[in-house]
Amino acid sequence: MAGMLEGKCALITGAGTGIGRGAALCFARHGARVAVADIASETGEETVRMIKADGGDAIFIRCNVAAAAEVKAMVERAVAAFGRLDCAFNNAGVEASLLKLADDSEENFDRLVSINLKGVWLCMKHEIHQMTAQGGGAIVNTASTAGVVGTELHAIYCATKFGVIGLTKTGAIEYAREGIRINAVCPGGTETPMLQRLIPELKQRGRVMGRMTPLARTAQPEEIGEAAAWLCSDRASFVTGHALVADGGLTVQ
Ligand SMILES: NC(=O)c1ccc[n+]([C@@H]2O[C@H](COP(=O)([O-])OP(=O)(O)OC[C@H]3O[C@@H](n4cnc5c(N)ncnc54)[C@H](O)[C@@H]3O)[C@@H](O)[C@H]2O)c1
Predict the structure, then answer these.
(1) Ligand 1, atom 7, residue with closest C-alpha
(2) How far is the CA of 244 from the centre of ligand 1 (A)?
(3) Cα–Cα distance between 43 and 17 in angstroms, integer?
(4) Domain assignment of residue 71, yes or no
(5) Which of 75, 116, 202, 225 could form a disulfide linkage to 160, CB 3.0–4.6 angstroms apart?
(6) Is residue 1 part of a domain?
(7) CA-CA distances (angstroms) from residue 161 to 84, 93, 119, 156?
């Protein structure tokens, strides 16, 4: 049986580790050729090797999603390599240490907004130009449960993720007639280097992600990758402007 992304060309940002890498492996197993983009070359190249070892096809593109010229060049390179861009998973993002809103710094605000929010907007902008020119495509942005509910000690991060959902819903309305579907995926706690970096602080505050979640565990990156792959596939052909929560039930409590 053909994979649900057979013949598609995909671009995934932040694909050097974590959810992006899990998604890149997933997209490739579903038949897509994958442009693996990341600010970190070593891990990005490693993801490409993993895909190739698995029988897939991938290239690496180094890109800082917060830099406009680099994002434009990233989309151009993916299109030069594959001839078109059917799917884009705008996933690159960063966390901040846990602070109450009034204790946080302007520096943190600018860093989180430039990568998590401006980065997603820049990617969407150039992907939409390409997808409009070729007659359609599908975009998925990584938000978070912190894009759906207020999240203590994550005010700025939370604001960027609510913003990502705003870009997703508005873009979905504006580009539906161009044949472009735009959705978001909202992961709960997922086993990635980002979560590992946060665990000591979370533990110190008596918060254990798995214990707070009805399914009583955190997600594996591939579980989020599967949700993004489905949203990018033709099987989700009537789904646009949706923020799909994949959080083991965390936010339904
Ligand atoms: N892990 C979780 O529990 C969780 C939960 C909800 C949402 N998220 C979101 O999922 C996404 C991926 O998170 P993760 O946990 O895999 O993180 P991660 O830190 O493990 O991986 C993020 C990847 O993005 C890359 N990156 C960072 N800044 C970049 C930039 N400016 N340009 C290009 N690439 C850049 C990093 O090099 C890294 O490879 C993020 O948007 C994050 O906010 C994660």
Answers:
(1) 144
(2) 18
(3) 7
(4) yes
(5) 116
(6) no
(7) 28, 10, 12, 9
For the CA of 22, the closest atom of ligand 1 is 16
Catalytic residue among 157, 162, 175, 230: 157
- Which amino acid is located at 142 in the chain? T
Q: Tally the domains of the chain.
A: 1
CA–CA gap between residue 90 and residue 100 (Å, rounded): 28
Residue 139, in any domain of the structure: yes
pLDDT at residue number 2: 73
Helices (H) and strands (E) in the chain, counts: 9, 7
- Domain membership of residue 187 (yes or no) is yes
- Note if 175 is an active site residue: no
- Model confidence pLDDT, tens digit, residues 160-177: 999 999 999 999 999 999
Domain that holds residue 41: 9-244
pLDDT digits (tens, 9 = 90+) for 70-86: 999 999 999 999 999 99
pLDDT per residue as tens digits for the range 188-234: 999 999 999 999 988 888 887 778 899 999 999 999 999 999 999 99
CATH number reported for the structural domain that contains residue 123 in this entry: 3.40.50.720
Q: Under DSSP, is residue 142 helix (H, G, I), strand (E, B) or coil?
A: strand
**pTM of the predicted model over 0.70:** yes
